[in-house]
Amino acid sequence: MAVGLTIGGFIAGLLLMAGNDWFLAPIAGAGLGFLLGRLLGLEKRIKELQYDFEKLWRQVNEAGGRKDADAPAAATPPETKVPTQPATGPAEDVSHLPVDGPARDSVPELDPEPPAPESTSEPAATDPRPAARPPVFTPEAPPPYVQTFFRQLGGWLSSWFTTGNVPVKVGVILSFIGVAFFLKYAVDNELFSLPIEFRLLAVAAGGLAMVVVGWRLRHRLRVYSLSLQGGGVGVLFLVIFAALRIWQLLPAGIAFVLLVALTAFTCALSVLQKSRALIVLGAVGGFLAPVLASTGQGSHVTLFSYYLVLNLLIVAVAWFQAWRAVNLVGFVFTFVIGSLWGYHYYRPGLFASTEPFLVAHFVLYQVIAILYALRQPPRKIGLVDGTLVFGTPVIVFALQAALVSDTEYGLAISAAVLAVFYALTATWLHRRHGAALQVLRDSFLALAVAFATIAIPLALDAGWTATAWALEGAALIWLATRQPQHLANFAGATLIVFSGCAFVLHGWRNDVGWPVLNGNVLNGALISLAALFAARRLEHFRLPPVGRLYGVMAWGLFAWGVLWWLGTGVAEIDDRVGRDLQMAAVVLFLSATVVVSAWYGQNRDWAMARGLALLFLPALALLALHGTDQYGHFLGGLGWLAWPVAFVVQAWLVRSMDRQGHRSARTWHVGTVILLTLMVAVELGYQVGEWVSGAWDIAAASAVPGIAALVIWRFRRSPAWPVPAHPLAYFALSLCMVAGQMLYLGVVTYTLPGDTGPLPYMPVLNPFDLAVLFAGGVALLSLVVIRRDQAGLGNTGAPAVLSAYRLLLGATFLVLTTLALLRGVHHLAAVPWDADRLFDSVVAQTALSIYWGMLGFAGMVLGARRGQRGLWLAGAGFMALVVLKLFLVDLGNSGTIERIISFIGVGVLLLVVGYFAPAPPRVPEDES
After folding, report:
1. Is-contact 34 2, C-beta < 8 A?
2. In angstroms, how far is the first alpha carbon of the chain from the final one?
3. Per-residue pLDDT at 186
4. 28 within domain boundaries
5. For residue 56, which phi and psi values (nearest 5 degrees)?
6. 336, 193: one domain
7. Radius of gyration of the chain measured on its C-alpha atoms
8. Burial zone of 887 (CB within 10 Å; 0-12 exposed, 13-18 middle, 19+ buried)
9. 656, part of any domain
10. Which of 162, 179, 257, 784 is the most exposed, having the fewest neighbouring CB atoms within 10 Å of its CB?
């Protein structure tokens, strides 16, 4: 590699010196090339040695392990009979390794066991089979290193200049360069008086003589003869080009005939002798000829035509031989020298005379890449030259960008043409050669996708570019799932995700075009559909070793598609629909989306689409919460249409879950009823509040859960869906409704005084008291329902819960009635609705003493009459609480009529209790 880079640096220095006075450039270039080559070579060698050492060490350890495993057999006592059957132990694991001789780059053979020491005891029985030769361990080839093109070219040049007849090779190169400089120097300084025609003929005769001598020596001194022939061919190329460009001695037609003839002649020599070196020498000489003999005044058409002829020579060689070095020499010289010419001399007026040569050379090197894959040995057919396959389009597209920089859509058209070219070529390779050239076909297909991706943003605006990328990503995934490929799947998913991001950042335009039929909606919908299509393709696609990752990708793309679908729709509604109608429009849009998704999921057996229906109820809840905060109710605008439609859709979804036996159907039944109840309560309260002032709206809203419980009890034995589908769930829900109603009333009646406007306050006939009475009635009815259905609930673990439910109802009803009493004191006695003021009020304390005493009296009397000892004890507890309150609280209000009423009233109640229920009922003997 060092020699190759030294030569490369020397040639680069010559190129610099040819147009300047930098005489030290070749020496400096050679020095830098040598140092760089040595550095790279040492690095590579160290890595190879390290890898070989580690591999050898592992194999030695494995051999030691096998020796230890066989040790017990070797230590068998002399009298032990050796088995005659072949052993089947670990040693068989290496039977497939080569043992006939040392392989290339293999390590020396290892003796698996040291020689056993001589023993004086009786020799043991031996195995009559001949001992197997120890295995030869051949280390695997070192892992491929990622090398640049210049490293590969330098390695080849190093091998070429360090093997074979090195002096003659170096001599040919130096002679060739010396002839070029001599010709230029002779012209500049007029050294000879002979006509230039004779000088050129003399040089040509010398070159031809080198070819003839080399041909005659081809059987005896192959390397020497090939070097002479290569040098002679280079001299002939140089003479023809000099006669054409420098002295204009040959017409262009005759010169090209000679060049074609010389090209064919060199091609024939190299193919007949199977000499890669010959054609490389000839190619290097031919490509360097116009550079070394250039005056800077020639025609680019002549230069590129000449290079076209040389590249046709390389195509002819590639038809017979897969010589990568020859291909790379032509590739590098053609595009490097062409790029340098374009940088210095190209102008827009030269497009018509430059573009055909760029296209021709591009096609030639794609043909060479295909021939290189086809002309490989049988085991390597299909081998891809990455430099030609990927390097050629990159360089050509960069040069094309410079050529069409002043043409509108020129680069977009160029990229599209390249995409079509590679797609057609990939198709032709697939049909003509099938799996033999699969890697090359896939490479061309990837290039087609890449150039199509590039062409889109060059031709379209940002919005449609993002959409095209999304569709392209979906197409990649479709293709990759039909012909399993990891890279194409990941590339397609990445394109879809990045297309959405690009559209958000650069493609969205507010309020542009018609409603719905505009770029925003169409692009967003296409991005969404591309993501959903890709998710559908990847849902059940698994390809080792990352099979599970495809499931994650599928769900991610599905979520991305749903997000884009909903986001596009909501954004369009926000842009186009008035504020009063936006909520209803979003609800209708979401309902339609869920219907289509659920229907498609059921008919096409797509679990992801069916799963989207599970998000409908939470989405409705969020929209309802937003609507309450934003509008105060739900029926405004088109809400009277949108929300009923939404709940019809939700009912259809829940019914579908029941038919499919969905495990979570019961949960969605309960959730749907709860959401509907809350929304009806909010809407009823809003509508009542619009017509009547005061607390009537709160009272009306609080009645809705009780009404819902009554409806459930009404249909609990009916065959009509939905209550019979999940009777226990609906029964538990109804009890929760009742408890929730009473708890809600407890909170609001404690917080608010209960304005009765426009009517004056009347005990019982006011909004809060009526609501409490209704809630209490529903609670009593729930206890009746529980008693009737007790048998059906006995084995469900519910009795303990029902007991807690009864206790909760009793405590809540006590709080509600107490608050109702205090509310009456507030309105009738003009005591402010404040906890401290009510506590300090003598009227409030007296009323509480009388009320709680009546409750205690009722409990004791009913407990004694019914024989319920627990009820009697509860009443007695209340009476004790009242007596304690009289002495701790009411006694402080001395000298007031209220204190007198409190003590007398409670005393009378105790006297009555002492008459009717003086003692608690006795416990039956059989009761524990």
Report:
1. yes
2. 103
3. 64
4. yes
5. -65, -40
6. no
7. 49
8. exposed
9. no
10. 784
Give dist(CA 409, CA 448) in Å, integer.
18
C-beta neighbour count of 114 within 10 angstroms: 7
Do residues 325 and 448 both lie within one domain? yes
How many other C-beta atoms can be found within 10 angstroms of the C-beta atom of residue 277?
21
Q: How far is CA 539 from CA 178, 255, 482, 542, 561, in A?
A: 69, 65, 14, 9, 14
CA-to-CA distance for 574 and 589, rounded, in angstroms? 12
Same domain, 284 and 313: no
Long-range contacts of 484-492 (CB under 8 A, 24+ apart): 484/541, 484/543, 485/442, 486/543, 486/546, 488/446, 489/538, 489/541, 489/543, 489/550, 489/553, 491/449, 492/534
Q: How far apart are CA 102 and CA 384, in angstroms?
A: 31
- Domain identity same for 324 and 437: yes
Q: Ramachandran region of residue 916, left (φ > 0), alpha (ψ -120 to 50) or beta?
A: alpha
Q: Based on the domain organization, do 322 and 212 belong to the same domain?
A: no
pLDDT of 116: 41
| Interatomic CA distance for residues 495 and 454, integer angstroms | 12
Read off the amino acid at residue 426. A
> How many CB atoms are located within 10 Å of the residue 687 CB?
15
Show the low-confidence residues of the chain (pLDDT under 50).
1-3, 14-24, 26, 72-147, 149, 795-797, 925-928
Cβ contact 249:204 at 8 Å: no
Rounded (5°) CA angle 893-898-899: 45
Sorted by sequence, the CB contacts under 8 Å of residue 795 that are 6+ apart come out as: none
Asked whether residue 441 is assigned to any structural domain, the reply reads yes
Please give the Cα distance from 55 to 93 (Å, whole number): 17
User: How does pLDDT run across 540-577, given as a tens digit for each residue?
Assistant: 776 666 667 888 888 999 999 999 999 999 988 988 88
- pLDDT of 368 reads 92
Spatial separation of the C-alpha atoms in residues 360 and 698, rounded to whole Å: 86
Sign of CA dihedral 216, 222, 223, 224: negative
- pLDDT score for 74: 43
- Which of 282, 273, 403, 269 is CA-nearest to residue 349? 403
Residue (of 107, 112, 111, 110) closest to 89 by Cα position: 112
Number of H helices, E strands in the chain: 33, 0
Separation CA 421–CA 405 (nearest Å)? 22
**Which residue among 252, 272, 298 closes a domain?**
298
How far apart, in whole angstroms, are the C-alpha atoms of residue 708 and residue 702?
11
The domain boundary, picked from 264, 298, 332, lies at: 298
Q: Is residue 697 part of a domain?
A: no
Could you list the residue range(s) of the whole structural domain that residue 332 is in? 300-459
Distance of CA 26 to the CA centre of its chain: 52
Residue-level pLDDT at 392? 87
